[in-house]
Amino acid sequence: MNRLIKEPKRIFFLLFPAILLYLYDRVAELLIVLVQQGFSWFHVSASFISTSASFMDATLSVLLTILLVIVYRIMFRTKKAEVSLSLPKGLLFATVIGFGAGGIATIWLDFIDYLTLHFHVLQEESSAFSGMYDDLEQGPYLFTFLAIVAFGPMVEEILFRGLIFRSFEEVTSLPWFAFVLSGVLFGIWHGSFIQGVYTAIMGIILGYFIKKTRSFLFVIFAHAVNNLSGTLPPSLDTDANNTLITWLSYLCILPALVILFYLHQKSKQKA
After folding, report:
1. Hey, where are the domains in the chain?
2. Which tens digits make up the pLDDT trace of 85-121?
3. How far apart are CA 268 and CA 20, in angstroms?
4. Three-point CA angle 199, 203, 206, nearest 5°
5. By three-state DSSP, how is residue 253 classified?
6. Cα separation, 194 vs 79, whole angstroms
7. pTM exceeding 0.85
8. CA gap 172, 114 in Å, rounded
9. CA-to-CA distance for 38 and 51, rounded, in angstroms?
10. What is the pLDDT of residues 158-212, one digit of tens each?
11. Could you give the CA distance from residue 159 to residue 155 in angstroms, rounded to a whole number?
12. C-alpha angle with apex 52: 48 to 53, nearest 5 degrees?
């Protein structure tokens, strides 16, 4: 029998990610309205509201994470890890993978910068991408950190490496299907061609990481490390530090790939 089994349950899980993402956006819109209403109820100052995008994003991420965790716990049971990692080892692997994914993203962005010089059609999208997170970087850095480094990775990992990844696992026994498809969907969801390519690659890597370890902690930490490398505190956001992080990210690409191969080999031995 073909591995893609045409049963109603599996068809549901194939369609569920698209339904989930639609509902996610609608619920997020509703929560934005409620939070803004809360601002008016508590007479929050206009100056705070004008620079509150990161606070709003962090608040939404917390609320959406709670909702997604509830849905995940209702729909899925915990799966046993193919490779068991101790906490220190798992966090070390996550750190290397987070920086390595950043190195791949930097190579892609450098390539886009090169293409932009020769193909003017990319200039508009490149400019839009450059200012994509300007709103989130206004106001106190604490809110930016919570939105981009702490709670943003949390909600995205529960959504994509949790509900969507597990849904695709229910569709077929093909070992690559869930982490590849959920990763590609992660890239498409970001809405920009430039950002979509490297986020899809990162999504595939993190999907493989959670497939082997079954640890939300590790993939959230890897995602947070990746985001932190591009969102340093103002006091540390210098040319020297950014250059250091760029080279560190480049140097972590090969070790990150070695870690993924190590996980592959360990899971084969265990099987």
Report:
1. 8-270
2. 999 999 999 999 999 999 999 999 899 888 887 777 6
3. 33
4. 135
5. helix
6. 34
7. yes
8. 40
9. 16
10. 999 999 999 999 999 899 999 999 999 999 998 888 889 999 999 999 999 999 9
11. 6
12. 160
